[in-house]
Design a protein that fits this description.
It is a single chain. The chain is of the alpha/beta class. 38% of the residues lie in helices and 16% in strands. It contains 17 helices and 14 strands. The strands form four sheets. Strands 8-7-6-1-2-5-14 form a seven-stranded mixed beta sheet, sandwiched between helices. Strand 12 and strand 13 form a beta hairpin. Helix 1 crosses helix 7, helix 6 crosses helix 8 and helix 7 packs across helix 8.
Length: 406
């Protein structure tokens, strides 16, 4: 039976017809908040991320396990009429369906919004694509790299003008699109609770990337000049970037006048307060290179740990630059349960990232590991009203896959 969460979306039934990242990220967010997310995968093959190897843990893809925790797994051959019929039965009772396929895939399968709305007027039909379901690029496939380039993100990421283009390290448009889609689903669900009606929710990697350009777009709208990459610096405030220390780097956030003066006192550099080049934020932005040269000279006189202590005691925002393994061990990450463990059916105990939104009344959280291919097929179909004999026949006919079916 379903492992019912106490999250705020408990009772919400989601069918995830999505693969790799953006759609699964949406499903993951909803599952973490208590929704019953049923991941429907291709018969025999499953989600492509099952083959994102290495790394693997006891034969299971680490990437797949990360993106699909808290979900139940169902395997169906949608090329067979009986397989499509099984999925339609599930969709009749679902609140939400998530899909991130190319523009015509769902229509060719007979699973487009109009078809599903006819059998389930309350269905919330969440579509995540490369460029959205309207506009001249609607038929294009989309990947994070392409979206980062076309949304303007890569034009402002990197060490400086004239250097080779650099993308953000994480697949930021995939993940952001998943978060935006989950927000859209929650809004559509709130509307459904009032009206009883579902609707389409449509977002894209392209729009997710554009959404990340708020500051840079504000500058471009105001000046008609496209911002350029600034390394770790901020396009509007200074100092707000990395500076060199004796043994590494430190991020400093002295971006407003009060913090600027507090920082100078904390690092014993009050002489810079009287420097006309650095009097206020416009002056500091105008003379950013000179400012960072001066600060590097000061910060290089001692260690990162020393300066972190000085700045923290003074109330100036500052932090180290951690690698991912160091972040996993950070006491704040651990205190906020952003690293947690779940029991996987074959791997055993595995680590995963925690839920980033905390609900103090209905906590939700990480309840289960990612499913094996077809792990919950029998369970889900029994809940849908199928008899065991009928399920056995579907398995024998290779319409659905179930763990242990050979």
């Amino acid at each position: 039976m379903t492992d019912v969460s106490s999250g705020p979306l408990t009772g919400l039934r989601v069918i995830e017809l999505a693969h790799i990242m953006a759609g699964p990220a949406c499903g993951l967010m909803l599952a973490d908040m208590g929704a019953d997310v049923i991941k429907v995968e291709k018969y025999g093959a499953g989600d492509d991320s099952r083959r994102f190897l290495p790394p693997e843990i006891n034969g299971e893809s680490a990437a797949f396990m990360m993106m699909n925790r808290n979900k139940r797994g169902l395997s169906i051959d949608l090329k067979q009429a009986d397989g499509k019929a099984v999925l339609l039965e599930l969709l009749k009772e679902a609140d939400v369906v998530i899909e991130n396929y190319r523009h015509d895939t769902m229509a060719r399968l007979g699973l487009d919004y109009d078809t599903l709305k006819a059998v389930n007027p309350g269905i919330i039909y969440c579509e995540i694509s490369g460029f959205g379901r309207t506009g001249p690029y609607r038929e294009r496939g989309g990947f994070d790299l392409i979206a980062q380039g076309m949304s303007g993100l890569m034009s402002v990421t990197g060490e400086g003008p004239g250097r080779p283009p650099v993308k953000a390290g994480p697949p930021i448009t995939d993940i952001t699109a998943g978060i935006l889609a989950a927000m859209g689903v929650c809004a559509a669900y709130a509307c459904k609770l009032k009206t009883g009606l579902g609707q389409r929710v449509d977002t894209s990697l392209f729009e997710a990337g554009i959404t990340q350009t708020f500051w840079q777009s504000a500058i471009a709208f105001a000046t008609d000049v496209a911002p350029q990459p600034l390394g770790s610096a901020h396009p509007l405030n200074a100092p707000y970037q990395s500076v060199a220390t004796r043994d590494g780097w430190i991020n400093i956030g002295a971006a407003n006048q009060a913090n600027w003066l507090l920082m100078l006192q904390a690092i014993s550099a009050l002489h810079l307060a009287d420097d006309p080049r650095f009097k206020n934020n416009p002056d500091r932005m105008q003379n950013l290179d000179a400012l960072i040269t001066e600060l590097n000279e000061v910060f290089k006189t001692n260690t990162t740990d020393h300066w972190l202590l000085c700045l923290t005691e003074a109330g100036v925002p500052a932090g180290p630059i951690l690698d991912v393994c160091e972040m996993h061990q950070d006491p704040q990450a651990l205190a906020r349960e952003m690293v947690t463990e779940v029991n996987h059916s074959t791997v055993g105990v595995v680590k995963t990232l925690g839920a980033p939104v905390k609900f103090h009344g209905t906590p939700g959280g990480i309840k289960r590991a990612a499913p094996l291919l077809g792990e919950h097929t029998v369970e889900v179909l029994l809940e849908a009203g199928y008899q065991q004999e009928a399920i056995d026949q579907l398995v024998a006919n290779n319409v659905v896959g179930a763990v242990g079916d050979g």
